[in-house]
Amino acid sequence: MREVLLHDTRSGGLLALSPRDAWRVGIYACGPTVYSRIHIGNARPFVVFSLLKRFLEHEGYGVNLVINITDVNDKIYDAARAQGRASAELAAEMSDLYRADTDLLGLGRPDHEPLASETMTPIVDYIQTLVDGGHAYEAGGDVYFRVRSDPAYGSLSHRQLENMDQGEDELDPHPTAQRKEDPLDFALWKAHKPGEDTLWQSPWGPGRPGWHIECSAMAECLLGVGFDIHGGGSDLVFPHHENEAAQTRAARGAELAKVWMHNGMIQLTGEKMAKSQGNIAPLHEVLAEYGPHAVVMYLISGHYRQPLAFSQSELEDAARRVHRIRDALRRLEQERPSPPDMAHHTVAFFDALANDFNTPAALAELFEWVREANRRGAGVGDSDLREMLGVLGLGELSPLQADGDVTSIDPEAISLLQRREQARSERDFEAADRIREDLRGRGWEIRDGPNGPELVPATGH
Ligand SMILES: [Zn+2]
Q1: Distance 367 CA to ligand 1 centre (A)
Q2: What rounded mean pLDDT belongs to the chain?
Q3: What's the number of CA atoms in the CB half-sphere (13 Å) around residue 7?
Q4: Are residues 386 and 421 in the same domain?
Q5: CA of 28 to the centre of ligand 1 (A)
Q6: What is the C-alpha separation between 230 and 52, in angstroms, rounded?
Q7: Distance 411 CA to ligand 1 centre (A)
Q8: Containing H/E element for 446?
Q9: In this predicted model, what pLDDT tens digit does every residue of 184-214 receive, in sequence order?
Q10: Ligand 1 centroid to 219 CA: how many Å?
Q11: Distance (Å) from CA 240 to ligand 1 centroid
Q12: What pTM does this model have?
């Protein structure tokens, strides 16, 4: 088993992975706030941590991957209000679409996808523990965390106190400044305000939790305190992760996670996606245009810690690399062992992943292998290439497929399928049949499989 090194934001260096529970690595990555469909930037942590799980499993570890869904948040109230909709309905719809959009990446689901709205009792208990310990106080129905009660505050983000604006009043029409003991403090519980259409009961009156405590509670419910890896985008280091870490130290007297891994941001270059309004790139549109293999290839083309430029030419490059692999697969002997004297590339591929999950270095080895196989011509077995592709989530690449990814199912079809399931659960069979016809018109047949209904290309298409 290789030693796996990961960059840890708190210590600023590489740490060797040594699982708390032998052979079972616990990973919590912060997932999306579901107020709109997710964009390509939200897909990066999903892909990085899903593939890290695959790599660790390849190395012989068991992995418990948790990626949460934040479905109670100011942004959701604001978006719902602007659309004249109920916030819970918007969050439920966007959660379904998030799952449908990320399903199309072909990487499977995380082991757990907790919802903040379904974790309310542990969240309220957590806040009560902080209040009881003197780390939090109630003010006007809100509850705030007393930042100066945690001597290690700042140890994750390494910020100076004067650069620690919690940013809470930017979105809040009822500024918290007068209620806080100290501007550094942040909200654990927010009293219900007029215009908010959901609320939960608490010892401090009706309201809803702050964002940071939601994640501390969801992570702890599923992984306990002191789990192995906490991940998320680098934009979450402060205040979100700093605050999660502080809450756990204050309530439990321990660190929440051993390693804090942060992925760089996707940088939009100002180019528009063909069908998009404005300078955003919704994941489902990028997938519809380039297919899942090219999108995954693009997302692993840079080191996860570095920013990654988003542009048409980057995606086209990724599509060309997928094409090169598919082309090589056509010439290889299917399901045959690869030549032992090419195995050093495969070893170097996995060594690169063990060294802070260096996917670009690993890909360079994979393409060296492909070049060598092409040079040798007939008779090279595909097993090593298949092993590498499997860990990158590209194991489904088939030499028989046409270029341009026939595996991509259009997102409209997915949402029609969901509406049919909804109709069936409401026993509206007429509507369900209508949607089935609609799908057939789009070239999809519904097949009821062991894991629920699936879409398969309609015969005659
Ligand atoms: Zn979080």
Answers
A1: 36
A2: 90
A3: 16
A4: no
A5: 9
A6: 12
A7: 27
A8: strand 444-449
A9: 999 999 999 998 999 999 999 999 999 999 9
A10: 9
A11: 7
A12: 0.85
Measure 233 CA to ligand 1 centroid, in angstroms: 10
How far, in Å, is the centroid of ligand 1 from the Cα of 308?
22
Q: Are residues 384 and 431 in the same domain?
A: no
Q: pLDDT digit string (tens) for 212-271?
A: 999 999 999 999 999 999 999 999 999 999 999 999 999 999 999 999 999 999 998 766
Give the structural domain span for 94: 18-263
Tokens of 229: 């890896």
Residues with CB under 5 A from ligand 1 (ion): 30, 215
Q: Is the torsion defined by CA of 156, 157, 159, 161 positive or negative?
A: negative
How far is the centre of ligand 1, averaged over its atoms, from the C-alpha of 243 (Å)? 10
Do both 257 and 347 map to the same domain?
Answer: no
Residue 4: which residues within 8 A CB-CB, separation 6 or more? 16, 17, 56, 59, 354
- Render pLDDT for 35-63 as a digit per residue (tens, 0 to 9): 999 999 999 999 999 999 999 999 999 99
- Beta strand 444-449 with 308-310 is unpaired
Question: Which two three-digit tokens encode residue 226?
Answer: 């002191």
**Within-domain flag for 427:** yes
**Do 106 and 396 contact (CB within 8 A), yes or no?**
yes
CA 208 to ligand 1 centroid distance, Å? 16
396-414 pLDDT, tens per residue?
887 655 444 434 556 677 7
Cα(197) to centroid(ligand 1), Å: 23
- Residue 387 sits in a domain of what CATH number? 1.10.730.10
Whether residue 273 lies inside any domain: the answer is no
Give Rg (Cα) of the chain: 24
70 and 122 housed in the same domain: yes
